[in-house]
Design goal:
seven-stranded parallel beta sheet, about 350 residues
């Protein structure tokens, strides 16, 4: 399987570089790619890897570049702008596609391309990192013990900081609001409108609903019609978020978005190796069937989000190198099984009970 070629696009970004370095540590020799040859070449020289600079706007050259590539790991955000051209190029060239996005619009795009991917025998599996492997696998495991569930709630508690790319993606959601799924349909809700107390695994905390990717993906994995995702937050910060709702129109403006992203470029750096080693993530989930009065709770502890993304992406990549099934859109749990998260370094077993 290691003779099959893989390509990492966006390899010089914070997470892309982590994936490239770990791939080499595992004995792989991926092609490094991205828009900028100047940014690619130093990393390629250091790791002794081939590098190809290609723009996502040049679809013809991109398709030609992917000829002979078995799997693409797409790491260049914002994925709302970059994922669709790469997915279409993968379908045209016959390469399996995966990425590290947490953006709901990308999951919806991939789902819309399901028929095209099936016809080409190509797998589309966005979200093969912390967004959304742990929560998606926990959702699938919870659904297995309660197939009649009508409500799914997920959440996670992490001390991990943001990389520049993740911070920029979060800025894009400021002008939109939160998101939940109600009766099978995604609905936009005001920031911090939904709150509850949750024991993610290290004591009960105040938490708020966020527009996490599982609002889309967990539905594709489980078909549970009502889905919410929460993170812990202080009541004071939640109050500040609610005040932001009055200015969402302003936060959607391009110049404001560009200004905020510019501040990220100057001030945000991803966590160091030592910082990542000291951070864990507590993932929690709940399924309910209120008509029957049934409820189950699940938890799993993982490494920090960036290490989950690195090892999760490479685990899915290895799976795809040996894959012989049909093409189409897949969530991580539908492709690799709910046990995928348990196989990642730093992860424990999924535990399900009544509380």
């Amino acid at each position: 399987m290691n003779n099959k070629q893989i390509l990492i696009y966006g390899a010089y970004g914070y997470t892309g570089e982590l994936i490239a370095r770990q791939a080499v540590a595992q004995g792989l020799k991926p092609i490094l790619s991205g828009r900028s040859a100047a940014k690619l070449q130093p990393l390629a020289n250091e790791l002794g890897l081939p590098a190809i600079a290609v723009s996502l706007d040049d679809q013809e050259t991109l398709v030609r570049t992917l000829q002979g590539v078995a799997v693409v790991i797409h790491c260049a955000g914002p994925f709302s702008a970059t994922a669709e051209p790469m997915m279409r190029a993968c379908i045209a060239s016959g390469a399996h596609y995966q990425d590290i996005t947490g953006e709901m619009s990308v999951y919806q795009q991939a789902h819309a391309l399901d028929a095209d991917a099936k016809a080409a025998g190509v797998v589309l599996c966005p979200g093969t990192g912390f967004d959304v492997i742990p929560t998606d696998c926990l959702a699938a495991a919870l659904h297995k013990v309660m197939t009649s569930a009508t409500h799914l709630t997920l959440g996670f508690d992490s001390d991990s900081g943001f990389s520049p790319g993740t911070a920029k993606t979060s800025i894009e959601s400021l002008g939109v609001g939160g998101a939940v799924r109600r009766n099978g349909t995604i609905e936009v809700v005001p920031h911090a409108e939904l709150t509850r107390k949750i024991n993610f695994g290290r004591g009960e905390k105040f938490a708020v609903a966020i527009p996490w990717g599982d609002v889309a993906t967990a539905y594709y994995s489980t078909e549970i019609p009502n889905i919410e995702v929460y993170i812990p937050m202080s009541p004071r910060r939640a109050k500040k978020m609610r005040k932001m709702n009055a200015f969402r129109w302003l936060l959607r403006m391009r110049w404001v978005q560009n200004w905020l992203k510019g501040k990220v470029e100057k001030s945000v750096r991803g966590p160091s190796t030592n910082q990542r080693a000291e951070q864990q993530t507590w993932v929690w989930g709940e399924v309910r069937n209120d008509r029957r009065g049934e409820r189950r709770v699940g938890r799993v502890v993982t490494a920090n989000g960036y290490d989950v993304t690195v090892h999760g992406s490479l685990a899915v990549m290895q799976y795809l190198l040996g894959y012989s099934g049909e093409g189409g859109y897949f969530t991580p749990s539908r492709l690799c099984g709910a046990e995928l998260v348990e196989k990642l370094p730093g992860s424990g077993a999924i535990k399900i009970g009544i509380d």
